[in-house]
């Protein structure tokens, strides 16, 4: 029996699409839900066209009550019985209590070579620092922001004329390769670090 995967998004869902497209054939997992905190998020429509159930839990309806938002999110997730959660552009910081309930079952993709540049504006920060390389990281989610065991990384050289937008555009195809590859291994019980370039 395949593991069930819920994918959490806030926007267009390009990483969600990459994950879902890979979960076919002899894959150890199948998508069971795509959920967003943003009504009308583009990724919800994409999931629907792929035949994946969708849900929305609008964080704005909870007016800063993070615990109530997470309780509502948890209720939706539990109804679909996922074994793995994949954060794929989910732009909400989850509380330690929520994360603890999914310990060892939640993955995230981050657009930097962690532990460098946690948080936002990662490409601009890598360029400003004069780094030779940038990339993306898939990691297990822990209570600390953009922390947790690293399961995979992909790297690209930073070019002398790079802008944050140009660098992001070169890294995105690597995200679409790395995240599905790591999920496939993770769902099979393999937590060794994967390196792509």
CATH architecture of the largest domain: 3-Layer(aba) Sandwich
Mean pLDDT: 97
Strand order of the largest sheet: 3-2-1-4-5-6-7-8
Strand-pairing-aware structural class: alpha/beta
Please give the CATH class of the largest domain.
Answer: Alpha Beta
Helical residues, percent: 25-40%
Main sheet properties: 8 strands, mixed
**CATH fold category name of the largest domain:** Rossmann fold
Number of strands: 8
CATH superfamily of the largest domain: Formyl transferase, N-terminal domain
Describe the protein's architecture and organization.
It is a single chain. With 197 residues, this protein is an alpha/beta fold. The chain folds into two domains: 1-102, Rossmann fold, CATH 3.40.50.170; 110-197, 3-Layer(aba) Sandwich (Rossmann fold), CATH 3.40.50.170. It has six helices and eight strands, in the order βαβαβαβαβαββαβ. It has helices at residues 14-22, 42-49, 66-80, 96-101, 122-128, 164-187; strands at residues 3-9, 29-36, 54-56, 84-87, 106-110, 133-140, 150-157, 194-196. Strands 3-2-1-4-5-6-7-8 form an eight-stranded mixed beta sheet, with helices on both faces. Helix 2 (42-49) links the parallel strand 2 and strand 3. Helix 1 (14-22) packs parallel to helix 6 (164-187) and helix 5 crosses helix 6. The longest helix has 24 residues, at 164-187. The chain is globular.
